[in-house]
Amino acid sequence: MEAIAIRIRTALNARDMGAFRQLIAEDATWGEGGPDDERTCHNRNDIVATYKRLLAQGVRGTVGEATSGSRGIACHVEVEWPDSTPNRKTSLYQVFFVSDGLITRIVGYDDRDLALASIAR
Length: 121
Prior knowledge:
This protein is of the alpha+beta class and 121 residues long. It has a single domain, classed as Roll (Nuclear Transport Factor 2, Chain: A), CATH 3.10.450. The protein is built from 4 helices and 5 strands; from the N terminus they run H-H-E-H-E-E-E-E-H.
């Protein structure tokens, strides 16, 4: 799991969506909405397209801490937004659930303890 954590951090910090894409299962999801929720990514292509869209808009995230657990990796991300829009999160946790060496689900958390608990079960 540690090797995958390093690859995730490296790909995201380099903004290398090709390398990141290789780590994602084809049917991976990102978000907590249902199948008709447009805010939820429903496959690898959706996930990569969303990251690319955010990068094109000037959003920059830097992965610092990347903690491995039995279920996946919890990454602490510092986010820089291109404008000063209030109420935007600048520090969050992205949890990458991993199965058979690939990311199968991505879930965001505001709280470090909850993020770490989610990968330890």
